[in-house]
Amino acid sequence: MSLNRRDFVTRSAATAAGAALAGGLTAATATPAAAADQNQDESRGRGPVPFKASFTVMGTTDLHGHVFNWEYFTDSEYDDKAHNDVGLAKISTLVEQVRQEKGRGRTLLIDAGDTIQGTQLSYYYARVEPITGTKAPRHPMAAAMNAIGYDAAALGNHEFNYGIPLLRAYQEQLDFPLLGANALNAKNEKPAFPPYVIRELHLGHGRPIRVGILGLTNPGIAIWDKANVQGRLTFPGIPEVAAKWVPKLRAAGADVVVVSAHTGADDPSSWGDQLPYAENAGVTMAATVPGIDAVLIGHAHKEIAQRDVVNTVTGKTVVLSEPLCWGERLTCFDFEVEFARGQWTVTGVTSRLLNSNTVAEDPKIVKLVDAQHKKVVAYVNQVIGTCKESLSIAESRFKDTPIIDLIGRIQADAVRDALAGGQYASLPVLAQAAPFNRTAVIPAGEVKLRDAAGLYIYENTLEARILTGAQIKDYLEYSAKYYAQVAPGAPINLDTLTNQANNTPDYNYDSIYGVSYDIDIAQPVGSRIVNLSYQGKPVDPAAQFVLAVNNYRANGGGNFPHVAKAQQVWANSDEIRNTMIAWVKAKGVIDPADFYGQAGWRLVRAGVPVF
């Protein structure tokens, strides 16, 4: 694997990382500058007029498998209300523009994680035609990022969704290091991935400037991908590990330190108090760890052009930026530096965002990945069954709808079949589901694979946990914090009814299939679930139920009560999405009468239905 590319020099010496996990890259550390080079250049920058220069570090994050400006779930060009465009092919055009403006030797390109999960393109080369094996294809994200010329990327939490072997195979295909200073080998607590890399840029002075790039990933991996990493990797906190490694980068000769971290700025955590580490720690790190010049963050899928954070130790300003996900934006950190008294100093940093919808796709990237793209388009357009009527998710945040009940029915059937004949076969089976994708539709008539996949857009797997009736009610009370409190008779505004007071995303709003209940939004959080019943009778708080639940929720994602500590009675390694596809194929026909109307939920105010 070549780490020496383009028209700048990487001055790094390799040391072993992740010895206990086969196939790992090596950690890159810088060698001291040659004394002769230093002496030769002392004469410049010693006088009253320092040598001044500039360079740009570009950054992406949360690409999530997007190479093209294409939506595989709808089999059409991607578009949203803001008319954003997505994909690495667009990013490539923006990157080339910046390189032409600044000079190729005056730019670097990095990523802050979550590259190999998120589209059917990336899924196909993880599960259908995986990149593991002796004759494995090149992952389309690796092919595109190599061709664009990335210099480093941080690990994201979704890099671990398909297991460590596939991640290692992806890592081996990259022409640049995959960094993770806080992804540690569980046995010896040493980095299992390269912690950092130092790149050299020649800015017209005799002595190149050395830019250290530290990579950090999200501690939540220990919860969200517990099945893949437990006993193998640990993930300590981002500020804590940065405090250890930033001085090492400086000691290794870095004149500039840029952190690429898969963490949000300072958003609330989705796991509550289950870990002692912050999920979104970008601002905390910038404020508390001295020696950082700029921070590229991600994970939160938000747009931050520039946020200035004053370091409490040094008083210096650290510039933080997050480009919007999926390749919709490209961050540019513009550095002003000067060489004086034998050393480089950062005199100014600003950041800006470039928008992908202002450029065309790079034909070089399109040609490179086109054959894989067409193969996946054919795959997702397979017909798997029919549906008697069109099912839309549009109102599922406010009403019990057949399309969400379809997810619940499929999950409940899978768990009931798995438990048949065993000691838990007599327990009633319930199922949680959330409105993941606001545009999902199961059409009337032919149903294609992409229709089912578009309804369940995450690679979650299915588990079965035992909860009591009281715990089910607690679970629903927690979920109902999704809604704002609205007094009886007050007007209903759908734009402010959800998400506002508690910052709860749609994927953390669960309904439960198999029971009936009302959610009284006139009441405060914690006192909203009324008339909870099972098969027409009030739920006994002491009764036992089996809850079919996805692994993200079962491992603590969203911090829902009870479920993470509940007894597990079954688990499946296949994605729920595939379970849904298999269910539709086996049934042949989706008929809402088979699963909708027997039980359900509704929003009320003082007993009066809202809708």
Automatic annotation (TrEMBL):
Per UniProt, residues of the Calcineurin-like phosphoesterase domain are 56-302
Give the EC number(s) listed in the UniProt record. 3.1.4.16
Q: Which SUPFAM superfamilies match?
A: 5'-nucleotidase (syn. UDP-sugar hydrolase), C-terminal domain, Metallo-dependent phosphatases
Q: What class of enzyme is it?
A: hydrolase
Q: Which InterPro entries match?
A: 5'-Nucleotdase_C, 5'-Nucleotdase_C_sf, 5'-Nucleotdase_CS, 5_nucleotidase/apyrase, Calcineurin-like_PHP, CpdB_N, Metallo-depent_PP-like, TAT_signal
Q: Report the domain of life of the source organism.
A: Bacteria
Keyword Signal in annotation:
yes
GO process annotations (BP): nucleotide catabolic process
Subcellular localization is given as: Cell envelope
Domain 5'-Nucleotidase C-terminal residue range list = 383-564
For this chain, the family text in UniProt reads: Belongs to the 5'-nucleotidase family.
- Write down the PANTHER family for this protein, in alphabetical order: 2',3'-CYCLIC-NUCLEOTIDE 2'-PHOSPHODIESTERASE_3'-NUCLEOTIDASE, 5'-NUCLEOTIDASE-RELATED
> By what name is this protein known?
Nucleotidase
Q: Which organism is it from?
A: Kitasatospora cheerisanensis KCTC 2395
